[in-house]
Amino acid sequence: MTLIKIAWRNIWRNTLRSSMVILSMVIGIAAGILFLGIAYGINNKRMEASIYSHLSHVQIHHEEFGQRMETKYYIENFKSIEEQLKKIPEVKAYAPRYVFNAGIRSPRAGQGIIIKAIDIGADSLVSNLKDLLVEGTYLDKKRIAPIIIGEKLAKKLQVKINKKVTLNYLSNGDEVANRFKVAGIFRSSALGMEETTAFMRRDDFEAQTGVSGQAHEIAIIATSLPNVNMIKEKVVAEGSAVESWTDLAPELKLMDMMLDKMIFIIMGIILLALSFGIVNTMLMVILERTRELGMLMSVGMNKMKIFQLVLFETVMLSAIGGPIGMVLSSLMMNYLYMEGIDLSVVGEGLKTFGIGSVIYPVLMDGDLLKIGLMVIGIGILSAIYPAYKALRLKPAEAVRAI
Amino acid sequence: MSIINTHDLTKIYNDNTVEVRALNGVSLKIDKGEFTAIVGPSGSGKTTLLNIIGGLDSPSTGQVKIGDIDITSLSDNQLIDFRLKNIGFVFQAYNLIPVLTAKENVEFIMLMQNRPKAEMEERAQSLLKAVGLEDQMHKRPREMSGGQQQRVAVARALASKPKFVLADEPTANLDSKTAINLLDIMATLNKDEDITFIFSTHDQKVIGRARRVVTLEDGKIVSDVLQN
Lengths: 402, 228
What we know:
The structure holds two protein chains of two kinds.
Chain A: H1 2-11, H2 15-55, E1 58-62, H3 78-87, E2 91-105, E3 110-118, H4 120-126, H5 129-132, E4 133-136, E5 146-150, H6 151-157, E6 164-171, E7 174-186, H7 193-196, E8 197-201, H8 202-209, E9 217-222, H9 228-234, E10 240-244, H10 245-248, H11 250-288, H12 290-298, H13 303-339, E11 341-342, H14 347-351, E12 358-359, H15 367-391, H16 395-398
Parallel strand pairs in A: 3-8, 5-7
Antiparallel strand pairs in A: 1-9, 1-10, 2-3, 2-6, 2-9, 4-7, 5-8, 6-7, 11-12
Chain B: E1 2-14, E2 19-31, E3 35-39, H1 46-53, E4 61-66, E5 69-70, H2 76-86, E6 87-90, H3 102-112, H4 117-130, H5 146-159, E7 164-168, H6 176-193, E8 196-201, H7 204-209, E9 212-217, E10 220-226
Parallel strand pairs in B: 3-8, 3-9, 6-7, 7-8
Antiparallel strand pairs in B: 1-2, 1-4, 4-5, 9-10
Helix pairs in contact in B: 3-4, 3-5, 4-5, 5-6
């Protein structure tokens, strides 16, 4: 008990120094939390951009569709799968789509693309295509079938809004050629999407081909990310492939893992810098109190107690700095979560990742506690070397130190 | 009956270039209840001798027996425990714990000996009274004069009920009046309570108060005189 009392009073022998250690812990926690929050915020935005622009959380296709994207590979038992999806509570929304290869031509150029024929009502619940539009309107019913194309494709075809293009595609072995009017132009960060994907109405496709009540793809949005796998497990779809966004875009998962590693490295650097600061401060403390420690050893204080005395001081500093840092970081994160961080200075760079210029930092469950405990832990670990140095003092010399 | 018995002590400091013989065959017996001054010029080996008797340093050769125990054969941890139970220390620079009050400083040693709280309080108060500091008990070292701090250090040294007290230049940082006052307190405790004091000094006034004066020169005892 007296050791704790001495340690506590020792802390306040040099208020400025102790305050600096506490402040460095608070800043360490806040910096760690902020970095983590921004990293997760950017990652979430990037993932959301991919999920809502083209991936969705889960996709269902005919099992052959992934290998050979041919129009004949409609999803088997589409209606029964639809019925299942309506009953799965983890499904927030789903949208059936026709997906096929087509040739698109303008008077000046042409190229092969992927067409997604969507039900505009259902699809607006699983995709943010509407938000990606930079020109024109959504796929409202028109006399000439509307089509939405990417900005890059529009440039390549040298077409603008309301200009006409022709689509050629095969349906059940028959070649279909139809004229479309460019209703909208979208911009997307998803790799290749602007150049290779276009959207048309599902009912236009059905009218042009005579196909009805079928789908090549069902895009599903889950109520939350952790529920994605539950949907995968619950859907019974013989002859179909049920794939999650991580199956469809493993590179996103890979980037996720890379981010985890980067966070680990940068957190390590922050903690290392913090620990050097604490080690330095505690070594100064030992140096200043050499004579006092020498006296304690001389009069019979055992090594374990000397070690504890030095350690207790850092534990107490950590016990003060840790909670203050966590509370302040929590307040800061709440504010930033509401207000966002305006990064418009690097807005163009962020746009290439499909992220807006305002980032909303987020934390995973337990992150605050984890970072707080890590900083406190580093504080305590940093005291071990100075405490060890204290043990190495020779009482006869230490007691006469100047 | 001697409580300290050193036999042919030598201490050689060797910094790889020059060999310094701090003690050179020192044999000394000190009986219970003695009030002994170790004197000599600077570098004569006074502090080295006290450090070795106190188990803070080890001799290059020779033996130190405290009672029946050869402390030169004890391990570091055994020595720490031995010092706690058997030796009281008074240092030149007082070396009190600055964040504790006078009373807490005195109690601290007893706390390490796991004494009951009531006993600690009672003994700390009576010791501080004995050194004339009953009205300074709750002051911290920085609020006291050098002489008062050194009296607290004497009370602290006695708190553990040691076999003897070692005081290395206890008056070196005090003015002569305060130094004499401190010596008087130590002499009274020695006389009334039969506490053995061994102290080093080169202050002639302090030497005059000792009952036995052991003089060291170049690491050797050159005289050992009993005074009235």
